[in-house]
Specification:
The radius of gyration is 17 Å and the shape is elongated. It contains 9 helices and no strands. It folds into 2 domains: 107 residues, Tetratricopeptide repeat domain (Serine Threonine Protein Phosphatase 5, Tetratricopeptide repeat); 55 residues, no CATH class. α1 packs antiparallel against α2 and α7 runs antiparallel to α8. By secondary structure, it is mainly alpha-helical. The mean pLDDT is 97.
Length: 164
């Protein structure tokens, strides 16, 4: 139990430092993974680091896969993994991941519906993208979220008009 407490402390240090102090974040994350190489949250954060900062999408994918192999119910992994798969243009894998994530209890459905909209947007299936953005509004619980979704809908509508 003590190792888990120490591991959590290092994970939270890494999370606190990411992405503003990468040296401290990476050091703490390496310690966290040394205590528990299968900690899904730490693996997810390492995946984010590789995806968002280093732009090493293949390494990021491996970390996200390891995180889900360690614990398929670590819900925080899914949005980041979906972004990574979309960046890798692994469209079918991304769609399957998003669809599965939407079945999980506790998942932020609004976020995953936005990922699904991005999937359809990349395929230039504007109406399906718009449908998912509109569905996501049902899961928006503050004005800022609604504003983001409204702007996203306008953007997709503009793209749709330009491609006609």
């Amino acid at each position: 139990m003590e190792n888990k407490t120490i591991q959590n402390r290092y994970y939270f240090q890494a999370l606190d430092n990411y992405p503003y102090n990468l040296e401290e974040a990476v050091t703490a994350l390496n310690y966290a993974l040394a205590y528990d190489a299968n900690d899904a949250d730490s693996l997810c954060l390492m995946g984010r680091l590789h995806h968002e900062v280093l732009r090493d999408y293949r390494a990021a994918r491996r970390y996200f896969e390891e995180a889900l192999a360690a614990d398929v119910y670590t819900l925080s992994v899914y949005p980041y993994f979906a972004d990574c798969l979309l960046a890798l243009e692994e469209m079918e894998h991304a769609k399957k991941l998003i669809d599965f994530a939407l079945t999980l209890k506790g998942m932020d459905k609004g976020v995953m519906l936005q990922k699904k909209a991005t999937y359809y947007e990349r395929l230039r299936k504007w109406n399906k993208a718009l449908d998912n953005i509109r569905q996501a509004t049902h899961y928006a619980f503050c004005a800022q979220e609604m504003d983001v979704l409204d702007e996203r809908e306008k953007l997709i509508e503009r793209k749709k008009k330009k491609t006609k």
